[in-house]
Amino acid sequence: MIRLPSHFLRIYAIQRALVRHGFDEILFTIPMLQPLGFLRHLMPWNWKQKTHGPRAPRIRALLEELGPLFVKFGQLLSTRRDLLPDDIAEELSKLQDHVPPFPGAQARVIVERAYGKPVTEVFSEFDEMPLASASIAQVHVARLQDGRDVIVKVVRPGIRRTIERDIGLMRLLADLAERYWSRGRLLKPARVVDEFEKTILDELDMLREAANASQIRRNFANSPDLYVPEIHWALSRPNVLVMERIDGIPIGNVAALREAGVDLPHLARTGVELFFTQVFRDHFFHADLHPGNLFVRPGVNGEPAVFVLVDFGIMGSLSEYDQRYLAENFHAFLDRDYRRVAELHVESGWVPRDTRVDDFEFAIRTVCEPIFDRPVREISIGQLLVRLFQTAQRFHMEILPQLLLLQKTLVNIEGIGRQLDPELDLWRTARPSLENWMRDRVGLRSLVRATRESVPRWIDRLPELPGLAFDVLDRLKQGRIEVSTHDQMLEDIRREIRSVHRRLSCSVAGAGLVIAAGVLHSVADDTGGPWGVYPVGMWVLGGLGAVMLLRAFATRDL
Fold first, then answer.
1. Would you please indicate which residues are annotated as catalytic (active-site) residues?
2. 400: closest CA among 254, 126, 188, 147?
């Protein structure tokens, strides 16, 4: 029996899923294969007229069929509402990262291998029945030898290999889109895949998540409004995380919060303030704030309720540079100073330097004025950001990954806050945090603080200045200072010219082999024909075709 590599089987499974959901036309959108487009109508699965329905539900169903990694990728894409049509973005937002758990006995083995000892020597109790399960890891309840309750987060076995395989296929599709889709270069799908790869691989490292949790816990150590569970560092490993088990009411259970006597409007305002505190005071924020990661401990004896955060796999951070421009943008929006907003986008480099400020200002005003003219409860910050990003695309704005994480989290915060208090004024709640940051970072106070921090460094380097000045003058006099340049664009063009002929040959031959394999399989499937006679031929054709397509498109430098 012939055993084929797993990536061949995966490519074949993706091909069948594309056909099943009516996306087989994707292959024939490649310019070099467009003359062969008539072959699509000769495929057995297209012999009968089919109605597949709207595209958005089909895309969601396709991603769900392809597995948890494609589901997570769809979730990331759903945050790019500045790029996707509204129907697709809305449908992708419905994707849920729920996958069947792997056996608890297997989790026990992973934990024992991580510690090099039986689990009974580490925990007095370990429940093999998982408390929760997701695509990267699953959570088990345990008890330490001293009686403290903890949760044990265990990374799925073999998940890195699965991720690397599926990321390679996503990159293949992204490269095809950038080359042959009219909007591909604008959407930059390859960069989206790179961003997704970094995010998903970071989530695999439990020590990284533990460090994130410890940082947030330290930032809010004395806060009466937010509690972060304690990390048990001595028991945490790269594939096993042990954290204090917390209790609380899920933020989405509004009925239970009311029954517990929680002041919901106060809770909503506190949540917004905590988020902006993370962004502007700490420049380090939890970037996965959906209802499953946020709990509430009701106050006792009249004390206010306390937020409890979990799951620190995805975090966002902003540089001082980004913080400044973001705060000034928010402040200008609050004052409806649209010209200042346009100027800030140009000054920060978010849009090209040659952008006409007047045109950009007019476009921003057109988007914002109809929104700000509504009652407060009808103003959606999420919709505003979406429309602004869509407008900025016309001016070739490049959306930075950290801003995307911020936008996604802000939309989630708004949704949670409005669920708790439909009358929540997000703008008014956010203004104090913005103004405090502006006072601290911009103006005289900022200058004094920066000078105070820099003086020791200046004093330390001052004795070196005369010697450095004489050294530069001496080099100038002897003609030993040179300026060199390197044009990377020319190098890229040369490399592309060298590989274009090989790409063309591989892609045509590979596509032909894959089509031939698909025809053979479909005829055998539909007619009950020589399926048992020609399986080897089908796999060989499909495998060779897949290899040639991967060689043509997945590798940038052949």
1. 288
2. 188
